[in-house]
Amino acid sequence: MFSRRIHTAEDARRLAKKRLPWMVFDYIDGAAGDEGGARRNRAALNGITLTPRILKDVSARTLATTVLGAQAHVPFGIAPMGMCNLSAPGADLMLARLAARHRVPLGVSTVASTPMERMIEVAEGNAWFQLYFSGDGEGTFKLVDRARAAGYRTLILTVDVPEVARRPRELRHGFQMPFRMGPRQIFDFAMHPRWSLATLLAGRPEMANFTMPGFDFDRTESRAKANWDTLKDLRARWPGQLVVKGVLDPQDAKRLQEQGVDAIQLSNHGARQLSSAPSPIDVLPAMRDTLGGSYPLFLDSGIRSGEDILRALLTGADFVFLGRILQFAIAAGGEAGLQQLWHGLEAELRGAMAMLGLTHL
């Protein structure tokens, strides 16, 4: 079983690279520009040292925490990711079941492969809907109303994609949704028959929130019209909790706080947008100083281990979100692989807490 070989995020990535078509792997794994941002994310996390403490009774440790008032079994959840079913048929629902099992938030992407209504049902309510503003906003606000009707209580507005960045690995493969089939793509799929046959039997992944009349979406459409008035309109329209994701400037964060945003998620989109953007962990201390000790701050981008999660929490984050490594685990070992990676992250976090003399978070 592949899942038995998944002990770390790098194990999952290595196995996924073997199993996925090159085009799909590079879509999931790739970053913007020369991918220096992805390397910077890792360097920033690796540069944070944690000092062990000794002779503390750490025999009883708990990972439980709260996130926006809800109990969570662990201090990390699932970031919104588009087209997860590319990693394996049914990946979206695997993530939803994981969220339900561990009572953690699942970010349901605007461009998910499974309708938002089904996702929150399978996640047993542990789902937040992630929103992209696009075009003139008409379709965007239709999605807001639809999410509210589906029972979502938390909305994530992603603000770091005014334009979809150039990601060279995607460009080299001619990646687009739906797939454009040419000789290179056909050869790629033929070289990965297990994935190709499973995907063929399950049906081609689509942007499932846009299969209904009146809900059109173009992945490459400009999102550049969004401004502070857009946020004001959204805040007035959305009665639930509002998280803004993709924030790296403390002054922007302060203005969001003043505009009634309930939480901020520090993110550089996994280095998929601006290659020269700072790593979220580097700006976290200044963000915490600006917003105060009690304001909810979440973080994603570059997280690969339980120690990374603890680094983020001790640097000032209240909660951490994981992204592509979960897709790699699914590609490598299906739902069993996803669960093994998750348990590994829990074990790493528990072990690191013990080394630091911590019993709770």
Automatic annotation (TrEMBL):
Residues 1-361 form the FMN hydroxy acid dehydrogenase domain. It holds the Pfam family FMN_dh. It comes from the Bacteria. The keyword Flavoprotein applies. InterPro entries: Aldolase_TIM, Alpha-hydoxy_acid_DH_FMN, FMN-dep_DH, FMN_HAD, FMN_hydac_DH_AS. The active site is at residue 269. GO terms for cellular component: plasma membrane. One of its GO terms (molecular function) is L-lactate dehydrogenase (NAD+) activity. GO terms for biological process: aerobic respiration. FMN binds at residues 80-82, 109, 130, 158, 245, 267, 300-304, 323-324. This is (S)-mandelate dehydrogenase. Belongs to the FMN-dependent alpha-hydroxy acid dehydrogenase family. Its cofactor is FMN. Keywords: Flavoprotein, FMN, Oxidoreductase. Its EC number is 1.1.99.31. Glyoxylate binds at residues 27, 132, 167, 269, 272. The keyword Oxidoreductase applies. Coiled coil: none annotated.
